[in-house]
Amino acid sequence: MRRLDNKVAVITGGAGGIGTATAHLFAEQGAKVVLIDVDETALKEVASGIAKVAPEAQVAWLAVDLGDEASAKAVVGHALERFGRIDVLVNNAGLRSYEPLDGAKAETWDRLLSVNLLSYAYLVREALPALRKSGKGSIVNISSTHAFNPRAGMGQYDVTKAGIISLTKTLAFEEAERGVRVNAVCPGATLTPFHIRRFAADGKSENDLRNEQLNQNIQRRWADPREIAYPILWLASEEASFVTASVIMADGGTRV
Ligand SMILES: NC(=O)c1ccc[n+]([C@@H]2O[C@H](COP(=O)([O-])OP(=O)(O)OC[C@H]3O[C@@H](n4cnc5c(N)ncnc54)[C@H](O)[C@@H]3O)[C@@H](O)[C@H]2O)c1
Fold this sequence. Notes:
Bound molecules: nicotinamide-adenine-dinucleotide
CATH topology: Rossmann fold
Number of helices: 8
Number of strands: 7
Strand content: 5-15%
Radius of gyration: 17 Å
Structural class: alpha/beta
CATH superfamily: NAD(P)-binding Rossmann-like Domain
Strand order of the largest sheet: 3-2-1-4-5-6-7
CATH architecture: 3-Layer(aba) Sandwich
Oligomer: single chain
């Protein structure tokens, strides 16, 4: 028996670094996976990458902009049409912005709040009937170590990540009686293609980053996306049946 056998999991941001690692791990553990992302080309690549290593895996995908409230209904409709149930929802899609608060633009605030926070709330609202029906529903919201350790220069992003913690706890309290667990994972620096591309612009290679001694955490390194996917898997699985309203820091021990 694998850890997610017979479960259907929706993963947003499924074409990104942490979403892809989570999708691979979930498929290896027996889940039917529904990948959601705005990037259709990347979604197809992730789905075919999983099929290569796990030909028996069942993977569906849908390209939508989660910043649009109507997408939440489309996502849930697609998952139910393809697999007939939803047991796990991993809210993971996210955008960054690098505007200091003294110059933060309204349009950036709107976009960050819509994608990073409201999309989580709308998708939960639409998926809850199916998650309740599952009897073992689990929501895993991906926040960030910077929900608790905010820094200069990324205030808009950090506010959305702090909001996700509040959303997680409120939802856990509201849904406990209906059997849906709700938890958050807070990654720290994780070496995803986004960061690899970002640092390539400064002339740093992926290898440079892997060998770098980070000051940000006590392990002094970047995480591999799979190191974030494992705590997500655990919270999604029934091994975490007594865990709800909780926040797991997967940040290598961030220094405040
Ligand atoms: N990588 C890190 O160091 C790190 C650290 C802390 C928290 N996180 C969080 O983990 C999550 C995943 O991060 P990642 O590093 O894998 O990022 P990523 O940029 O690789 O992936 C995010 C994915 O979300 C998708 N997305 C963005 N806007 C969307 C929209 N409007 N609709 C649908 N999809 C959309 C992107 O296309 C992308 O595939 C994010 O919420 C991020 O904030 C990451």
